[in-house]
């Protein structure tokens, strides 16, 4: 599987449509409807495989997935899909506002540099290339969330394992 992570900014109507789809069909719906329409737009943010390192760094080097900052900037949030093969989490409008405020007050590049070498030992990309990869893929997160806030969107994170 790819393990490529994505963030998508969705309108309230798009979130409700996603919620209306049976849970076992939501990931395919996301691929066919949401990704198809939003990929490559300002309402999408590619994270590649760096999402995992970002999640570790935001949580001080340990894995955490709550619905509070900073755990929910990437992976955490409300789970809309949670299987061994696929995950979709949701950050609501209030979460998005709090995330933008947090990132304005806490530079993501500094957080990554401070916490990357604290990541648990079983992390596969814990080397200089992994650090560079994580730093590089973090650059679009703040502009993405700022745009989501401006457009009054909620945000989903998606990954398939």
Secondary structure blueprint with pairings:
Layout: E1 5-10, H1 12-20, H2 23-38, E2 44-48, H3 50-58, E3 78-82, E4 86-91, H4 93-105, H5 108-115, H6 128-138, H7 141-150, E5 154-160
Antiparallel strand pairs: 1-2, 1-5, 3-4, 4-5
Write a compact overview of the structure shown.
With 161 residues, this protein is α+β, with helices and mostly antiparallel strands.
Q: At the fourth CATH level, what is the homologous superfamily?
A: YfbM-like super family
Q: Low-confidence stretches at least 5 residues in length (pLDDT < 50)?
A: none
Can you tell me the number of structural domains? 1
H/E series: EHHEHEEHHHHE
Q: How much beta, percentage-wise?
A: 15-25%
Using the CA coordinates, give the radius of gyration: 15 Å
First and last CA, distance: 5 Å
CATH class, anyone?
Answer: Alpha Beta
Q: Indicate the overall shape.
A: globular
**Would you report the number of β strands?**
5
CATH architecture: 3-Layer(aba) Sandwich
CATH topology: Hypothetical protein yfbM fold
Strand order of the largest sheet: 2-1-5-4-3
Largest sheet: 5 strands, antiparallel
Mean pLDDT, all residues:
96
Helix content: 40-55%
**How many DSSP helices?**
7
Q: Kindly name the structural category.
A: alpha+beta
């Amino acid at each position: 599987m790819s393990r490529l992570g994505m963030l998508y900014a969705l309108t309230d109507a798009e979130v409700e449509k996603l919620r209306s789809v049976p849970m076992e069909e939501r990931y395919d719906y996301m691929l066919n409807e949401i990704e198809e329409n939003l990929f490559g737009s300002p309402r999408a943010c590619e994270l590649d495989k760096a999402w995992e390192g970002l999640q570790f760094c935001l949580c001080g080097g340990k894995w955490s997935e709550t619905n509070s900052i900073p755990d929910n900037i990437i992976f955490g949030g409300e789970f809309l899909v949670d299987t061994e093969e696929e995950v979709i989490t949701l950050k609501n409008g209030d979460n998005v506002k709090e995330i933008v405020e947090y990132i304005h007050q806490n530079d993501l590049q500094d957080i990554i540099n401070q916490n990357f070498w604290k990541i648990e030992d079983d992390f596969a990309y814990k080397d200089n290339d992994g650090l560079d990869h994580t730093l590089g893929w973090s650059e679009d997160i703040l502009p993405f969330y700022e745009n989501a806030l401006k457009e009054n969107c909620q945000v989903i994170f998606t990954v398939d394992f």
